[in-house]
Specification:
The complex is a heterodimer of chains A (87) and B (244).
Chain A lengths: L4 E3 L1 H7 L5 H8 L3 H8 L7 H10 L4 H4 E3 L11 H8 L1
Antiparallel strand pairs in A: 1-2
Helix pairs in contact in A: 2-3
Chain B lengths: L1 H13 L5 H16 L7 H17 L7 H30 L11 H22 L1 H24 L3 H9 L2 H12 L1 H18 L10 H23 L12
Helix pairs in contact in B: 2-3, 4-5, 5-6, 5-10, 6-7, 6-8, 6-10, 8-9, 9-10
The chains are: A mainly alpha (87), B mainly alpha (244).
């Protein structure tokens, strides 16, 4: 299934100073077409690329991607705060 | 500098930024076909141009595609395998049944090469751009090609040129329709493909023979039917589109 993953890439780009698709693509080392495909839910990135995207936004992978039937956690830029909440 | 800027703007416009390897490969393909007029051995250059970059990428010696482009190419390869394999079995049955003799049997390799490569190309475009955008651009490409052929054929006769050019209008109309109403456009494209197949007798042994007719059908009818099938599967109103 290619559309069972929901993504927050577009929202996170907006929250990160309205980062362009081109800028994000350059940061994670892919083409702009790839970012567009991910945002539209057409392409599920590899684990490595998902981690690079999350790192570009300083959030965790599950803040960017989630299964379609799950609710995405509110994205945070502070890993430590979230970790503190958990443990 | 000006050429480079113009090339970049054109690439932005059509949403496709070919890598250097792809451009070199395309040059070799065209060059091979042109030089084959002098000596058929030069056709091997076209083979190198068409398949060389992919071989180098698979060997890991060329890293000019990201994972999305690689996945599109690999998926297209599987589609090409399925279509060509099915066609091979149908053709084996056709030939072994002994009902008809084929004209130009040496064209068989051309037929399978065309089927393999154009299925791969069409599927790659559909994966890369999404069905609606790819179909729309393929139809615009058809329309432009038709206009160029019309201009080359009837440039001395303005009225004839106008009449010829009008044939391109349905392609442009279908291109617009594919964006807005993909399923309607898909059905019309499949119908147009079937119509062309029957109207031009691509199924018959007339003119160049069945094999040559089939090669032409792959080039003309294939993109229409392939795009049409993809459009039928497109989600209305919200189909993901890959490239800008």
């Amino acid at each position: 299934m290619k559309d069972d993953i929901r993504t927050e890439v577009r929202r996170l780009r907006f929250l990160n100073g309205e980062m362009t698709q081109e800028e994000l693509a350059a940061r994670v080392g892919v083409s702009r077409q790839t970012i567009i495909a991910i945002e539209k839910g057409k392409y599920n990135p590899s684990v490595g690329l998902a981690m690079r995207i999350a790192r570009a936004f300083s959030v965790r992978v599950e803040d960017v991607f989630a299964l379609a039937d799950e609710t995405l956690p509110e994205a945070t830029h502070d890993h430590q705060a979230r970790d503190d909440e958990i443990g | 500098m000006i050429i480079r800027r113009a090339t970049t703007r054109l690439a932005d416009l059509i949403g496709w930024h070919p890598t250097a390897a792809t451009l070199i490969g395309a040059t070799l393909v065209v060059g091979g076909f042109l030089l084959a007029e002098a000596n058929w051995w030069f056709i091997a250059l076209s083979g190198v141009g068409a398949f060389g970059p992919g071989i180098l990428r698979e060997l890991g010696w060329l890293r000019d595609n990201d994972e999305f482009a690689r996945r599109a190419a690999q998926r297209a390869g599987y589609h090409a395998y399925l279509v060509t394999g099915l066609a091979a079995f149908v053709l084996i049955g056709f030939i072994r049944s002994g009902e008809r003799h084929l004209k130009n049997p040496e064209e068989l390799s051309t037929l399978f090469l065309a089927l393999l490569y154009f299925t791969w190309l069409l599927s790659s475009l559909l994966s890369f751009w999404g069905a609606r955008k790819a179909a729309s651009r393929i139809l615009i490409g058809f329309g432009i090609c038709w206009l160029l052929f019309s201009a080359a054929d009837s440039w001395q006769d303005p009225l004839g040129l106008l009449m010829h050019s009008l044939v391109a209008a349905p392609f442009f109309a279908l291109a617009a329709l594919a964006r807005r109403w993909p399923r309607v456009a898909g059905l019309l494209l499949i119908a147009a493909g079937v119509f062309f197949y029957v109207f031009f007798d691509f199924y018959s042994d007339q003119r160049g023979g069945l094999i040559t007719n089939s090669v032409t059908a792959v080039l003309l009818v294939g993109p229409l039917v392939g795009s049409g099938v993809a459009l039928l599967g497109a989600r209305v109103g919200g189909e993901p589109e890959a490239a800008a």
